[in-house]
Amino acid sequence: MHWKTVRRILAGVALLASVWLMSAGLKMEWLAAAFPVIGSMLLLLMAVLLIAPDTAVKIAEWCAKPFADLFYPSDEFEKPPLSYKLARRYKQERRVDDAVQEYEKILYYYPMERDAYVELIELAKQAGDDELREKYEGLLREKFAG
Model-level pTM? Predict the structure, then answer.
C-alpha cells in the first residue's frame, strides 16, 4: 500500500474517532467533558496534519491564483484585447498588407467594431485596392444598415 493511502486511511480513522469523542464529551457534565473534547481536538488536528501534504499545495494555489493573475495574467483569453495601435502604426508607416492584416484580426474578434471597418475602407482607398474597399463597404452596410 502506498504511504499516501495509509495517511488517508489514518486521517479518516482519526476524524471518526474525533467525532465520536466530541459527541461523547458533549453528553458529559462540565469538567468530565474536558478530556474527551481535548482528545477530540487533538485527533482532528492529527487528521488535518495527515491530509495536509495532499491538500496544502492545492489550497495554496487556489488562494494565490487571483493575486498571481494580477501580476502574471494567464493566456486563457477568449480574444485579445481591442487595440488599434499596431494597425494604425502600420498604416502610418505605409505597410499596407500588415495594416490590413491587423484590421482583419480586429474584425475577426470584434465584428461589430465600426471604426475598424471605416479605417480599413479608408486604407483600401489610399492603397487603391478597389476589391478590398468594396468587400468591406459591403460588410459595413450589412452589419450597420439602419
Answer: 0.50
